[in-house]
Amino acid sequence: MVQHDVRPTDDGDLLRVLDSAHLTALRWMHGISERDIPASATVDEVEAALGAALPVMGEEPVEVLRHLADAVEPGLMVSQSPRFYGWVMGGTYPVALGADWLTSAWDQNAGLREVTTGVVAAEDIAGRWILELLGLPPESDVGFTTGATMANFTCLAAARTRVLANEGWDVAAQGLTGAPRVRVFVGAERHGSVDLALSLLGLGVPTIIAVDDEGRIRADALADELQRAAGPTIVILQAGNIHSGAFDPFGDAIEAARHAGAWVHIDGAFGLWAAAGPTTRHLLDAAATADSWASDAHKTLNVPYDCGVAIVRDTSALRSTMGMHASYLFATTSDAADPHERVPELSRRARGVPVWATLRSLGVDGVHALVDGLARAASDLSRELSALPGLTVLNDVVFTQVCVACASDEATRALGERLRADGDAFASSSRWHDRDVLRFSVSNALTDAQAVADTVSAVSRALARSDSTLR
User: Fold this and answer.
1) Domain stops at, among 314, 330, 358
2) Concatenated DSSP letters for 107-128?
3) What residue numbers bound the domain in which 35 lies?
4) Are 223 and 256 in contact (CB under 8 A)?
5) DSSP 3-state assignment of 234?
6) 147, 343, 394, 422: most buried by Cβ count inside 10 Å?
7) CA 441 to chain centre
8) 200 pLDDT higher than 80
9) Where does residue 305 rank: exposed (0-12), middle (13-18), buried (19+ CB within 10 A)?
10) What's the whole-number mean pLDDT along residues 409-413?
């Protein structure tokens, strides 16, 4: 084997390598709607195909890409299928994918306003469009993070800074040792990423507030608990319960929090986008009066991984928490923040560029149609699944989540396993209200009436081929 030239390639080699990657990607995407969904290879099988040993001599780049695709594709889950409903994973608009490719090709560090002006401008506009579509305060800062977990972290870090500052404590200068205790209140069915963010921030285990049957926080229980609280306080509400899709009663809950002088954060990983749907925006009534909001554009908006969105009304708290300054950095000369003052990273790719492209392509009407279409597909799916013998829809379907169960946990688990093994549709197993459930999260813009019908047929076949325990 002859060692290939490891220096950067010239234009001809660059085109050859990227053409190879482009054609490989097109082959993967072609017919993806008809493909079986689960991966067909195990991690060990893919590792064996990739080759565990690092070669002494390098290989030609086009051959490396061919090897990569041949080895990895059997281990890929077809999460872009319109019949994929696992873990609230959205699909990908073609324009978003194209913009993501350009973002990688441009390879800009989107941290400094005065340096990478092109991508910063696109992200600034995307942020303003998000605020407009969601009806959130236009003065808010918008930062693009790796996902909803880090969006929650970013917002809650700003909250920690502000509520401690209100008590005369500078957490940046003094740390947390000896600081007044920050009380954090969450609903019993909050997402686990909230607890993770609180742990990373050193805020410990939150106070748990009772919820109703759909997982909505009880505003009366929150008010009672807040009356017993003193000192710096954060209240975390939820837009879109992971099982039921339910939304907390924002008006009453935020009013109770305001009486306690609390910072209010809303975790809306997928549900925050309901504010952009004409038939669903009522679910976010009064949500705009909170202090911060977290979401994930990969979910409802259907842009590629990764693209969390952190939104904070108190720009001073956010920028003082996330920003850093050094003589080697080009400090902005405008009133606007450097992008790195809005997120935990100094160096990052321009995640907001695919958001700009998607929103520009859709327009206001297209976003309305996207959000309402997802909600309509979930409602149709719920109605059709509930008509199948032996299957019960457990939640009040208000947005994009549909939870179903059979008569027994064993039957529900068996149905999920059979459905995923068949490969025609994918729903993720979970546990809710002390019973096993199958969770259908409608998150792909391609999930239309035909996809719903095909999904119901797949579930019906899985039920029919099962033994009597499924009944």
Assistant:
1) 358
2) T--TT-TTTSHHHHHHHHHHHH
3) 11-78
4) yes
5) strand
6) 343
7) 12
8) yes
9) middle
10) 96
Q: How many domains are there within the chain?
A: 2
Clarify whether residues 182 and 281 are in a common domain: yes
- Judged by DSSP in three states, 209 sits in strand
| Residue 428 bridge partners (DSSP) | 439
Amino acid in the structure at residue 251: G
227 and 338 assigned to the same domain:
yes
Question: In this structure, what is the dihedral angle of CA atoms 216, 303, 78, 383, given to the nearest 10 degrees?
Answer: 40
Residue 81 tokens read as 């299928």
Model confidence pLDDT, tens digit, residues 432-453 = 999 999 999 999 999 999 999 9
Are 339 and 120 in contact by the 8 Å Cβ rule? The answer is yes
Q: Is the pTM of the predicted complex or chain greater than 0.90? A: yes
Distances (CA, A) of 82 to 23, 34, 260, 444: 23, 9, 45, 6
Residue linked to tokens 């609230």 = 88
Q: Taken in order 115, 119, 122, 125, is the CA torsion positive or negative?
A: negative
DSSP H or E segment with residue 222? helix 219-227
In terms of domains, do 221 and 334 share one? yes
Q: Tokens 């809650």 identify what position?
A: 156
Provide the token pair at 276. 């952009």
Rounded distance, CA 160 to CA 202, Å? 10
CA 76 to chain centre: 20
- Single residue among 304, 329, 358 that ends a domain in this structure: 358
